[in-house]
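pipeline: protein-struct stage 2 | run 1193 | Glycine/betaine ABC transporter
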Amino acid sequence: MVKLKSFGITLGLAGSLILAGCGNEEGNQDAAAENVSLGEQLDYTITGIEPGAGITGLSHKALEEYENLEGWELLESSTAGMIGSLEEAINNEEPIIVTGWTPHWKFSAYDLKFLEDPKGILGGSENINTIARKGLEEDMPGAYQILDRFYWETADMEEVMLNAQKSSYEEAAMNWIEDNSDKVNEWTDGVEKVDGEEIELVSTQWDTELASGYVMKAVLEQLGYVVTLTPVDPAIVFQAIATGEADASLAPWLPTTHASFYEQHKEDIVDLGENLEGTQNGFVVPAYMDIDSIEDLQPKE
């Protein structure tokens, strides 16, 4: 009995040592995972959108100006691609940094935050302006007057954007117009209907500008205009208005995002001023990430 008892004790001690060894190994793995920097987890990559977007150019500039972002890269893709990557990361509660802007429906759908930009490279609070070709006021005074009066709030734009994800921009715009007839009447008051005058609006492919573009398209169509709404790159927006190939746009973000395009063409366009105030660009992360500023990131080793 003594021998059997001693043998049992020996087995118990051996098992405890084995379990302790396994526990230490797992603990070491967990500790190693915790020691992996955010940059390593993200492969030193920020997920962006289209190459021609204003925020894309600003993001490249930020990567150059912030010394702590040395070795980081911007993955240019598309707005849809960026949203898809963001949704996947959030569903798995993984880290991700994307180029983002507000107003946008993603801020209503998810708990997100902008990283602080101490150098102000990505721009502070901005406005969205309306621009028109020279001569539009004389050629289409009614349409020009509506474009000049057009102004709405961030909540209006985000409502259209969010509802468009469930249906279409055409349907979301019409529903918003029906629910906000007082505001629409302020834009159209005293403007006479026309009989099939053609007008072309150009827009960027951002959800923000698609929202305003489709709302304006529907408003003008209710007054008898035949409206073409063409989504193009930001550079083409300004070029089309400056050359008279298009009539108007509700898309320019100023004074930072589209500043270079505006400076290039400002003598050949008519700036009707802000149609929305208080926009913002920046690097965006899910709120569960323990990071608050661009300067919290570390350079690639």
